[in-house]
Amino acid sequence: MKKKINLIDVTDFSLPDGSGSSEWFTEAFEDLGLFSEVDLVVWDGVSGELPPVERIERAGDAVMISGSYGPVFADKEWIGRLMEFIRLVHSKDIWMLGICFGHLAIAQALGGRVEANPRGREFGTVMIFLTPEGEKSPLLEGLPQGCPVNISHMTHVSQLPDSAVRLAFNQMTRVQSFSMGKTFGYQPHPEFGPKHIVLLADMLGNLLVRREKYLDDKAHLQDFKGSILETPASKAVLMNFVRMIRD
């Protein structure tokens, strides 16, 4: 019987094409041919829909937590429920991977600290680098030093939980990935292709140019969209996670 990955979809926004995390992960799994190895079961975490942890534990299945729009320290009821769920999943030694918001939520739920990044927004195709521990981590197998990743965030893990192992970093944050036993955080979006970042840039265009001055003007926005790359090594993080839970 195939293992199941329980995707907790906490994407409380949609891209201009109407898509959210469940569609992005489904497309990535299809591109990687992962549905021959695992099933993806989607839970609406924003509405408080969470899988029974006891059932996941009995079946030897896994949990994945998606990205979201706001910070993990926002005053939203579903975030509190998610934090309790994360602590329970981790205590049961169940495989768990948090992506972007999920990465930050795991860090905070397990005793770390998440804050607004004083260096501001990190967005687009950037490079991350592996620590010596990251070079040995099965989650990051195949990722080169200076690996291109697609990313979008304004907060970061400023302090890791006790016993967490830092796996990746770059000039914007020291914690682009970490592990705690079978629990992993990964700040980039392995499920994102260039089209997703481009759509997100279109959606945030006025904010990026007028309010944040992240980009100079509409012409700079067009240049930025042209700089987004495919990131196959980063997408392979999903394949690595599937192999870990399968083995």
Overall pLDDT confidence: 97
Low-confidence stretches: none
CA radius of gyration is 17 Å
CATH topology: Rossmann fold
Q: What's the domain count?
A: 1
Please tell me what the overall shape is: globular
CATH architecture: 3-Layer(aba) Sandwich
> What string, H for helix and E for strand, traces the elements in order?
EHEHEHEHEEHEEEEEHHHH
| Strand order in the largest sheet | 2-1-3-4-11-10-9-6-7
Outline the biggest β-sheet.
9 strands, mixed
Level of helix content?
Answer: 25-40%
Count of separate DSSP helical elements = 9
Q: Please indicate the percent range of residues in DSSP E strands (runs of 2 or more).
A: 15-25%
- Report the count of strand segments: 11
CATH homologous superfamily descriptor: Class I glutamine amidotransferase (GATase) domain
Structural class: alpha/beta
